[in-house]
């Protein structure tokens, strides 16, 4: 190493070691990525073939909905949640019945599993991907009446608009359970009296919840689990195809009474 | 003797460089010269701040590669990576000393994920120049082995400090922290993930073990601030902004720890009006930020530094 390079090295190390720095000012803000910002052309070109392949499969119109719906539209039960739970009941029950000779008593999905709203207008395959992007499948859990009671308690305590069908839960003005019914057989369940007329209930749900997702631990105690090899998203796509118009409503399936 | 001394110094320097990641910016060389020059000409120091670092950040982008459609009832025409990239490029041309970070859940939410399993998300983050991201709960949606597989498309660091991944396929692929040297400022970044039990199926996260975020934070801060002498410590968090229960969240983490300068949060899809400022255990200010989801917003935090001697009496100014 010659003298010049040693000198340069010393200089380099010296300037690199730098004066200690003190943080004196912070500015923070949020910038909205709106259409006033030009798209980067190179990146657009890179995405284009990926986008085309998806678009080809996504854009076919399956049904129509007159109004936009979101899971946060109402408390306790919502049109979008009711539509999803009703779709599971309508589409999954024939399969379950054919395989087992039994019927699904009720459906329970989870609020968090509704991954987007539905815009007014045409419903496409993409709509189903947006609301149900996950690969989850429909499963039917056989729950003992004790576990059904825990399921109902879970709804009563959480007071969240989890999608349900075949089940009615009515809260009193204080938010406690007033009554719960499993509609399909008009079974009136008065758990407090210990008079439960049915030993097992068949609850259709997703394979995410059956494994204890969203703390629905009552599913972990299922007596039996039947998988239907039917993805929730495909079920919704089939349901949309079957209906011309999707116009679900809020109803009385999960409500709180007023004084 | 002199030669030996220099070699030792040089070796030390090389060793230190290996631990660091130098962020190559067009301005890095300029900054180098300016810093050297200022030592000599400090009496004529031309600008107010000696160093300026910009952080750009996203969270919960959830595969939203395209903008929302014009008929979307909530976010018409908002978001999209091509526009985000233009914004990033604008900021970098203004300040090359910019770090680009993400707080997890890059995966899941549009057919791009169903079709390509996260490949395009990671490729685009690489093209946009992201430096680091972390593991959100939805990164596990196609299983932990899919994260490992998709990392071949990522040239940024995937960081996590509070998952013990040693018995998983991510064991050698995910680092607990990374130090980025930007314009001779050392920026330490570590990352925290949410408790997976009850949120993600065990068959997807496999042998991942969740460790207490507060304890891990103190450990990470000690490494980054004391041992590696970072000028700034940033936590990428997928814990969530705030819970009413005693479940750990970003606000609680900021208050219950010391040494973090900025928490970039995610998971709760929280649209904050502006970054929150929280007092930590030492009474020092911590910025906690989160920018909703889907790439609708990008967070921008600018840090300005002065030479320690010159600014002894200045207190930290926070403008949010």
The H-and-E topology of chain A, N to C, reads as HEHEHEEHEHEEEEEEHE
CATH class of chain B: Alpha Beta
- Specify Rg of chain A, calculated over alpha carbons: 27 Å
Q: CATH topology of chain B, which one?
A: Purple Acid Phosphatase, chain A, domain 2
Largest sheet, spatial ordering of strands of chain B: 1-7-8-10-11-13-12
Largest interface: A-B, 62 and 91 residues
| Helix content range of chain A | 25-40%
Main sheet of chain A? 5 strands, mixed
How many strand units of chain B?
A: 15
Assigned CATH superfamily of chain B: Metallo-dependent phosphatases
Order of helices and strands of chain B: HEHEHEHHEHEEEEHEHEHEEEEE
Number of domains of chain B: 1
- How much β-strand is present in the residues of chain B? 15-25%
3D architecture notes:
The complex is a heterodimer of chains A (259) and B (320). Chain A has 259 residues and is α+β, with helices and mostly antiparallel strands. Chain A has one domain: Alpha-Beta Complex (5'-nucleotidase,  domain 2), CATH 3.90.780. Chain A is 34% helix and 25% strand. Chain A has six helices and twelve strands. In chain A, the strands form three sheets. A five-stranded mixed β-sheet of chain A has the order 6-3-10-5-11. In chain A, strands 9-8-7-12 form a four-stranded mixed β-sheet, covered by helices on one side. In chain A, helix 3 (79-100) crosses helix 6 and helix 4 crosses helix 6 (232-242). The longest helix of chain A is centred in the middle third of the chain and has 22 residues, at 79-100. Chain A is globular and about 75 Å long. The termini of chain A are far apart. Residues 7-17 of chain A have low confidence and may be disordered. By secondary structure, chain B is an alpha/beta fold. Chain B has one domain: Metallo-dependent phosphatases (Purple Acid Phosphatase, chain A, domain 2). Chain B is built from nine helices and 15 strands. Chain B has helices spanning 2-19, 26-40, 81-94, 111-116, 119-127, 144-150, 202-205, 213-227, 250-256, and strands at residues 20-22, 51-58, 98-102, 132-134, 157-159, 163-164, 177-182, 185-192, 209-210, 232-237, 262-264, 276-279, 285-289, 297-307, 317-319. In chain B, the strands form four sheets. Chain B has a seven-stranded mixed β-sheet with strand order 1-7-8-10-11-13-12. A three-stranded mixed β-sheet of chain B has the order 3-2-14, with helices on one face. In chain B, a hairpin with a 5-residue loop joins strand 12 and strand 13 (285-289). In chain B, 50% of the residues are buried. Residues 1-18 and 26-47 of chain B have low confidence and may be disordered. Classes of the chains: A alpha+beta (259), B alpha/beta (320).
